[in-house]
Amino acid sequence: MSSEPSQLERTEGGTIAYHHSSGEGTGLLWLGGFNSDMDGTKVLALEEWAHAAGRPTTRFDYFAHGQSSGDFRDGTISRWRDDALAMIDEVTSGPIILAGSSMGGWLTILAALARPDRVAGIVLTAPAPDFTEDLMWANFPEEVKAQIMEKGEWLQPTEYDEFEPYPITKRLIEDGRNNLVLGGEIAITCPVRILQGMEDPDVPWQHALRLAEKLKTDDVSVNLIKDGDHRLSTEQNIARLIDTVESLAWEVDQN
Predict the structure, then answer these.
(1) Rounded Cα–Cα distance for residues 77 and 110 (Å)
(2) In this structure, what is the dihedral angle of CA atoms 31, 37, 38, 41, given to the nearest 10 degrees?
(3) What pLDDT, on the 0 to 100 scale, is given for residue 161?
């Protein structure tokens, strides 16, 4: 496959960069995290597995992420959800497994709710549904909240890139409130597998259990990894992720 990504033109303007390869059986679509890109360790390992297994696989960069166009400050949960839906509708075909990491876990839930006829299974790593409200806003000091509301944004330092803090915008927070899912039952009926580190500094492991409880489907399993961090990108954890996706893909193919 070419190292240069394909570009999907969006009706809202701009382009979404992606890599897609065809194959047989249930496909795989990766949804990455907040301010991440499609060249991460986990997704590349999953892509390699999918190629070896002859399965369709797709990875992409959301609006204003990686090689896609746009200003990150203009990004919202709704916009990024719509990017995922565009991938489902215009790039992939047939039944797919959505694999979402961190914020991608929230977008996976939203996409699966919007396309239940296409999503045959879900695998989540450190899923962060409702993170703008429950994991950000609820924990921000009052002065940070005031800056966001009055100035429109706050630059959040991050251990992942000390020179590039994340802009947390008023638009992001307010749009997030229009996409909250943990307030009631989540009407997803396909099988769901969750991998969650218990030493994750960004998404508490209890958050994953809360999500599992809210899902309508009974076919849910949560794998708590005692020494796991947020990225779950060690060799052992990546192998665990691949095994989880492979097992679920086999189950889906049998049904």
Answers:
(1) 10
(2) -100
(3) 56
Both tokens assigned to 124: 């989540």
Q: What is the predicted pLDDT for the residue at 1?
A: 45
**Residue-level pLDDT at 207:** 98
How far is residue 193 from each of residues 9, 27, 124, 197, measured CA to CA in Å?
Answer: 32, 16, 6, 14
Question: Residue 133: what pLDDT?
Answer: 98
The DSSP H or E segment spanning 224 is strand 220-225
Residue matched to tokens 């959800």: 81
Residues identified as active-site: 102, 200, 230
Smallest CA-to-CA distance from 18 within 71, 69, 78 is with 69
Question: What parts of the chain have a pLDDT lower than 50?
Answer: 1
- CATH class of the region 6-128+189-254: alpha beta
* SS3 at position 6: strand
- pLDDT for residue 163: 57
Positive or negative CA dihedral for 179, 33, 194, 204? negative
Helices (H), 182-234: 205-214
pLDDT at residue number 160: 60
Q: What is the pLDDT of residue 234?
A: 96
Strand positions, DSSP E, 113-210: 119-125, 153-156, 166-169, 192-197
DSSP state of 138: G
Rounded-to-integer distance, Cα 255 and Cα 251, Å: 7
